[in-house]
Specification:
This protein is mainly α. It contains 11 helices and no strands.
């Protein structure tokens, strides 16, 4: 009975395995920092140009850079989860993992931890560059940043869990989803513009996605100096439903993968 209990030691073992893999490859670490830095610098200089022409973004207190940084939390959180999962597929190690005492919930917990590790490696240097280059300090958002972060990381884990289930069932033929799934949500989560810009019927889609509430809340905080607690509560509710649905789908897809033998044959 004890072997079936949740074991933090097994989670820690999986985290250590993935951490050793990450730290042994400087190109992997460089990649975690390169793309967020490139995006932040590109959009940051665009904001400087627009502010010189119109002054709106200067008054908005760096809303564009804030959107870029929060989007990277959402995207990199999911990507960090998915890449750690793909590393096991590339090594053809999934069959061994599933035959070990490691439970699916422990495996997912380890992937969540590695998602945070990868995200911090990429985002902390980028946030410091935003201060140095553009005078925008995302850390000054304080408690609001923590709430934004928690909502965004819950969404990214939910998408990562669902994508992992699809990869289990369909093999590396579904690998593209790990890189593109989040971008399908980009136009509807209103990262760079308010929900009111969308056609009326698309606004219903936008408000069904938890990140929309975060980006609307961020704009309200930076432009109106108002923290929208109501938006954050709604985001938590939608995230709870999304996370539960993704977890259920993962377990069903895992069971299907076991029945069809795709855990061993994880090629395309």
């Amino acid at each position: 009975m004890s072997a079936l209990a949740y074991s933090p030691r097994r989670v820690r073992a999986m985290v250590r395995r993935n951490w050793y893999l990450l730290r042994s490859s400087w190109p992997r670490i460089l990649d975690l920092m390169y793309w967020p830095m490139l995006q932040m610098i590109t959009w940051g200089f665009l904001q400087l140009y627009v502010s010189q022409q119109a002054g709106f973004f200067a008054q908005a207190g760096g809303v564009l850079i804030g959107s870029v940084l929060l989007w990277d939390i959402l995207f990199r959180g999911q990507l960090g989860f998915s890449i750690s999962f793909l590393e096991e597929m590339y090594a053809r190690n999934l069959g061994n993992i599933m035959m070990s005492p490691l439970r699916p919930v422990e495996f997912v917990a380890a992937l969540m931890v590695m998602s945070l590790v990868r995200l911090m490696i990429g985002m902390i240097p980028v946030s410091l560059l935003a201060i140095a280059f553009f005078g925008f300090n995302v850390w000054s958002l304080g408690l609001a940043l923590a709430v934004f972060f928690l909502n965004l990381i819950l969404t990214s884990w939910s998408i990562g869990i669902f994508v992992a289930g699809l990869l289990l069932r369909n093999g590396l033929g579904a690998e593209t989803l790990a890189w593109t799934f989040m971008f399908l949500m980009l136009p509807f989560t209103c990262v760079y513009y308010p929900v009111s810009v969308l056609p009326h019927w698309l606004q219903y889609v936008a408000w069904a996605l938890p990140p929309t509430y975060v980006f609307e809340g961020m704009r309200a905080l930076l432009t109106e100096r108002v923290f929208r607690a109501d938006l954050m509560i709604e985001a938590f509710i939608f995230n709870g439903v999304l996370f539960a649905a993704a977890s259920f789908a993962f377990l069903r897809l895992l069971e299907s993968a076991r029945l069809h033998g795709s855990l061993i044959q994880s090629h395309e």
